[in-house]
Design brief:
InterPro entries (chains A, B): Homeodomain-like_sf (IPR009057), HTH-type_TetR-like_transc_reg (IPR050109), HTH_TetR (IPR001647), Tet_transcr_reg_TetR-rel_C_sf (IPR036271), TetR_C (IPR011075)
Number of strands of chain A: 0
CATH superfamily of one domain in chain A: Tetracycline Repressor, domain 2
Largest interface: A-B, 36 and 35 residues
GO molecular function (chains A, B): DNA-binding transcription factor activity; transcription cis-regulatory region binding
Protein name (chains A, B): TetR family transcriptional regulator
Strand content of chain A: under 5%
Keywords (chains A, B): DNA-binding, Transcription, Transcription regulation
Oligomer: homodimer
Order of helices and strands of chain A: HHHHHHHHHH
Number of helices of chain A: 10
Chain lengths: 212, 212
């Protein structure tokens, strides 16, 4: 999935402020600096001051906008997802999930993303705020994509109305992350197709309804 | 699943040497020392010498038996799995997988195991031998459990003959690990049942056959 969808996740979220111009450039350079710094020195040695120097801004700019190091890291994780995962629209839930699982795997096969995610997931292994911010930022992106594709599947009559969109995305993504981070096995085309197929089948059969 | 199955995984594996007596006691104390050391100082500061001191054995004993630090770590991971995951036999694939997913979650809810797995998974994030040894040791246990319960399911006619046992276990376990280590969400009873249900359904429908 080399070509980028014209409607990235961020554009789907009403009320999100995405200012252009200088503010957007500052955000981009700070997040880029944060990701570079994270990969070079690791989470435990990263600090707001070092990110500020690398980005060419005052530390106060970072504190004012993101509140803390954790805030910058969470936003950096979110930005990587947003810029690389878009909302598919293939006409079927299984097709949409296949496109999504392929995009996730492609993201991980692109060396800088893999290194960033390794650091972010590694830092998320601790039990501090970094863990929570990382987890919630990745979850938010998934939930937003899931909401759109599952809503369409419900309208098409493919899945029950009370299907849990977040669970559909979790089911499709989990086997890929399991291979990447738990069993450390390769992830191939067959795995992305299978993950999508299993999740779509489970959703169609009503196994992924919201808990009552 | 507080009570332990009388047939732990190790016992299911023909040809595995589990000597009793002094050798077994040495193994147990070295692995216990390795796990304690890992949690206290982290993987990057752990060394064979420190583990040897803690276990009260000569470093040469460890090198002779495990070859390297990675060998000890892999065996420690394997031993935690072996001692805590047994082969269920409930009469159905879905029941067996439910028992297994519950046992995995219970393992993670037991504080020392969670801390050990955090360290082992964290060390597996690197790209060195620790990653490979950790991954292969956890995989081996799963593959052994999977082989037994899927073979029974095939005999009962529940699933196609060419069902991929390792993939069945991966499907059942992946959503739990995803919650524990990627999205950092709680894992409840409903999640363990759902993971088993989705994996069993996918297997029954022939979605988890071996690749040709």
């Amino acid at each position: 999935m080399r070509q980028r969808d014209p409607h990235p996740v961020a554009g789907q979220r009403p009320g999100t402020v995405r200012p252009g111009g200088r503010t957007a450039r500052t955000r981009r350079s700070v997040l880029q600096a944060a990701l570079t710094e994270l990969v070079e020195v690791g989470y435990s040695s990263t600090g707001v001051e070092k990110i500020a120097i690398r980005a060419g801004v005052a530390p106060s700019t970072i504190y004012r906008r993101w509140g803390s190091l954790e805030g910058v890291v969470a936003d950096a994780a979110q930005s990587v997802m947003e810029e690389n995962l878009s909302v598919p629209d293939t006409g079927t839930l299984e097709g949409d999930l296949s496109t999504l699982t392929r995009a996730i795997v492609e993201l991980f096969n692109t060396p800088p993303y893999r290194a960033w995610m390794d650091v972010l997931i590694g830092s998320a292994l601790g039990h501090g705020p970094a863990r929570d911010t990382f987890a919630s930022s990745t979850l938010r992106t998934r939930a937003e994509i899931g909401a759109v594709i599952v809503e369409r599947a419900v309208k098409r009559g493919e899945v029950p109305q009370d299907t849990d969109a977040a669970e559909v995305i979790r089911q499709a993504a989990a086997p890929l992350y399991y291979r990447l981070y738990i069993s450390c096995e390769p992830v191939g085309e067959a795995d992305t197709v299978r993950a999508a197929e299993v999740a779509a089948t489970a959703a169609r059969q009503g196994l992924l309804r919201k808990a009552v």
